[in-house]
Specification:
By secondary structure, the chain is an alpha/beta fold. An eight-stranded parallel barrel has the order 1-2-3-4-5-6-7-8, surrounded by seven helices. The chain starts with a helix and ends with a helix. The protein has two domains: about 60 residues, no CATH class; about 250 residues, TIM Barrel (Alpha-Beta Barrel), CATH 3.20.20. Bound molecules: dihydroflavine-adenine dinucleotide. Dihydroflavine-adenine dinucleotide binds next to strand 4, strand 5, strand 7 and helix 12.
């Protein structure tokens, strides 16, 4: 119920306008977002790299409404790739196709994505296409399929285990040889397209994870769920799958203890580092995953306020 309410609020731009200047909301966001500027995100990446953790930088922002805005989003993503290369950071980037113009028209989005991938290929790096709500799943996968042939090692996508269709999509991507990040899925979806019960989402994740570990191309196992992480570790141990054939992935600010433990044990770990002024929908999805975060972070804000 609370999850549904938070996900509903995540889609209300009027609420964001209201909270954008609010210092408590900004403090809440700073737990999960590495600041509003690229400079602040780069500082976070440096800190993570120093802990032996690789990253994926993400400029927050969802659907844009004009061709010019979509072009600007592609320009910023290219600047991110160039900054990563110039400063020799251990990072790739993640983008959303609606930022690159998917809602405006497919040709605009294809042109922007192609321009971005050409730069990524020239710099020898990698772009991950995040997965958005189910209304975009097929269009996202079709576009990735179209561009995969031209940029095979530079392009990857995301599969959400809560969708019924994901079994077939994982086979489709294994067939292509595309790199997949597997996550549970963060959007509010109807029972007609997604498992309503968490136990089924987790079972689907376990099944897809094992298929990807066995037959996929360098999968990203994106979860903070310790049961699933233990299962992955056991599976690769039993099958003799080398630790450089996959990576675990987690979100900035979530389960830092587990992040460090995995690195200490010699597993590869990538942290998703979001930044930018459009942090509101992202923050609301993180709070929806674990409403206890609201109390936890507000408690910290109050304690720090008292100390000051
Ligand atoms: P689950 O929600 O079951 O949580 C398991 C445990 O992890 C919790 O008990 C808690 O301990 C901890 N935890 C989880 N979320 C937490 C939080 N917000 N704060 C504190 N603790 C938390 N989704 C999507 O739809 N499209 C995408 O492209 C991506 N991309 C992406 C990249 C990466 C690197 C990650 C890690 C995740 C995503 N996601 C995503 C989000 C994903 O779908 C999912 O919503 C979250 O990862 C939470 O699910 P868990 O697998 O962690 O399990």
């Amino acid at each position: 119920m609370l999850r549904a309410g938070l996900l509903y609020l995540s889609e209300q731009p009027a609420v964001f306008k209201f909270v954008r200047g609010n210092p408590i909301a900004k403090r809440l966001a700073s737990r999960f977002v590495a600041g509003e500027t690229l400079d602040s995100a780069v500082a976070a990446v440096r800190e993570l790299n120093a802990r032996g953790i690789t990253t994926s930088l993400d400029l927050l922002g969802e659907s844009v409404h004009t061709e010019a805005e979509a072009g600007q989003a592609a320009d910023v993503a290219i600047q991110m790739l160039e900054r990563i290369a110039r400063e020799k950071l251990d990072s790739n980037i993640s983008v959303k196709l609606t930022q690159l113009g998917l809602d405006i028209g497919r040709p605009v989005c294809v042109a922007n994505t192609r321009r971005l991938l050409e730069r990524a290929a020239a710099l020898g790096t990698f772009v991950r296409i995040d997965m958005e709500s189910s209304e975009y799943t097929e269009r996202t996968l079709a576009l990735v399929e179209e561009l995969h042939a031209a940029f095979p090692p530079h392009l990857g996508v995301v599969i959400q285990s809560y969708l019924y269709r994901s079994d077939a999509d994982v086979e489709r991507l294994i067939g292509l040889g595309t790199r997949v990040r597997l996550c549970k899925g963060a959007y509010k979806e109807p029972a007609s397209v997604a498992h309503p019960d968490k136990a089924d989402v987790d079972a689907s994740f376990a099944r897809l994870m094992e298929r990807l570990l066995e037959r996929g191309n360098y999968p990203g196992i994106a979860t903070h769920d310790e049961k699933l992480i233990t299962r992955a570790r056991r599976f690769v141990g039993q099958r003799g799958i080398a630790r450089d054939r996959f990576e675990f992935q987690m979100l900035y600010g979530v389960r830092r203890d587990l992040q460090d433990a995995l690195v200490r044990e010699g597993y590869r770990l990538r942290v998703y580092v979001p930044f930018g002024t459009q942090w509101y929908p992202y923050l609301m999805r993180r709070l929806a995953e674990r409403p206890a975060n609201i109390a936890f972070i507000l408690g910290n804000v109050v304690r720090e306020g008292v100390r000051r």
